[in-house]
């Protein structure tokens, strides 16, 4: 495949993902407040402006919000690679490393392995201060 054709294909996929993100605003993605920051081949960065409603009773970002952010980012990597396939999260592992309050969270995700029916990804969440808050990995299965 020529570089020009590869770039056209990536731009087309990026446009499709941006349209998907726009359509997803009425779903949990939008309710949570996720935004796409950057897309490239096999990598995605999203962000979330964490607000008081994202906090738990200790005034810390709720673990479920972090888990959802990880899953959303890794899921976008999978959607980018399998745009015409139905995929589901088969397994997700999360390491909560540091607590945080309100502020901008940035989450990046990338593909680390692919087999015939399974994609394995990893993802990291960073706080406003650049500190690593959580690391996760996930396996996504292509369903027939």
Account of the 3D structure:
There is one protein chain. The protein is an alpha+beta fold and 144 residues long. The protein has one domain (3-143): Thiol Ester Dehydrase, Chain A. The protein is built from three helices and six strands. It has a six-stranded antiparallel sheet. Strand 1 and strand 2 (43-50) form a beta hairpin. The chain is globular and about 50 Å long. The two termini are 28 Å apart. The mean pLDDT is 91.
Please write out the topology.
Elements: H1 3-23, H2 28-32, E1 34-40, E2 43-50, H3 63-81, E3 86-96, E4 103-114, E5 118-126, E6 132-143
Antiparallel strand pairs: 1-2, 2-4, 3-6, 4-5, 5-6
Keywords: Hydrolase
Pfam family, one: 4HBT
GO molecular function, one term: hydrolase activity
Return residue spans where pLDDT drops below 50 for at least 5 consecutive residues. Answer: none
Going by CATH, the architecture would be: Roll
CATH superfamily: Hotdog Thioesterase
In the CATH scheme, the class would be Alpha Beta
First-to-last CA distance: 28 Å
Task: Give the mean pLDDT.
Answer: 91
- How many beta-strand segments? 6
Give the overall shape, derived from the CA principal axes. globular
**Helicity range of the residues?**
25-40%
Q: What is the CATH T-level topology?
A: Thiol Ester Dehydrase, Chain A
> Number of folding domains?
1
Structural class category = alpha+beta
In terms of DSSP E residues, the strand content is: 35-45%
Order of strands across the widest beta sheet? 1-2-4-5-6-3
- Radius of gyration (CA) equals 15 Å
Q: How many separate helices? A: 3
């Amino acid at each position: 495949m020529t570089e020009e054709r590869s770039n056209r294909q990536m731009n087309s996929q990026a446009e499709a993902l941006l349209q998907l993100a726009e359509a997803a605003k009425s779903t949990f993605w939008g309710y949570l407040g996720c935004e796409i920051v950057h897309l490239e081949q096999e990598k995605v960065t999203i962000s979330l402006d964490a607000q008081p409603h994202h906090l738990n009773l200790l005034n810390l970002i709720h673990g479920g919000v972090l888990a959802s952010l990880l899953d959303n980012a890794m899921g976008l990597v999978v959607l980018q690679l399998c745009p015409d396939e139905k995929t589901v999260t088969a397994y997700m592992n999360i390491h909560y490393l540091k607590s945080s309050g309100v502020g901008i969270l940035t989450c990046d995700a990338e593909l680390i392995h692919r087999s015939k029916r399974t994609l394995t990804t990893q993802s990291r969440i960073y706080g406003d201060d650049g500190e690593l808050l959580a690391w996760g990995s996930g396996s996504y299965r292509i369903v027939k």
